[in-house]
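Quick one, T. Sequence first:
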Amino acid sequence: MARRASLESLGGFIQNFHLPLVDLPTWQQLSLKGEFIYIPRPLGKWRIYPNQVTKTYTAEMAEGFYKLGLDFYERNESLLAKNGVTKSDIDRYFKKLLVINYSRAGRYKLIRKDFKGARKSYSKSIFRFGWNEPLWKLRSAIGLIFSVFKKDIEGFTKKIGRVSYK
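Structure tokens:
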């Protein structure tokens, strides 16, 4: 929960960097307004459904989060430096996250038989973001092969004991 006056001082909810959400950018700015406290009970519930934005735009959202993180760092560098956060920390974190998210996006597209989209996501996972997360890059390489041959990856994942991605 946040005080209404604090939210209004920001101009309301914030949406930027082409992110299809308002919560993270808003909470990020609210973090500069005062202290947060922990409330040890659920205050809401996360809805899960097949075409939710967090599944269909996983990688794109991670790219937006990266831009949001860099922008927040640039605007508040001295504050973050006091807490030991550097730009290289942010870069390293998001490059790892992007390898994983592009791999997951590839699998999501492959399951839905969007073979071209899957190849694009898997290729980004493999060839961008340095040598981070080599096991995820290997998973992406396997997915890339499946997408080239237009094969169903779910049968393969069941054989190796992996839970299906719904």
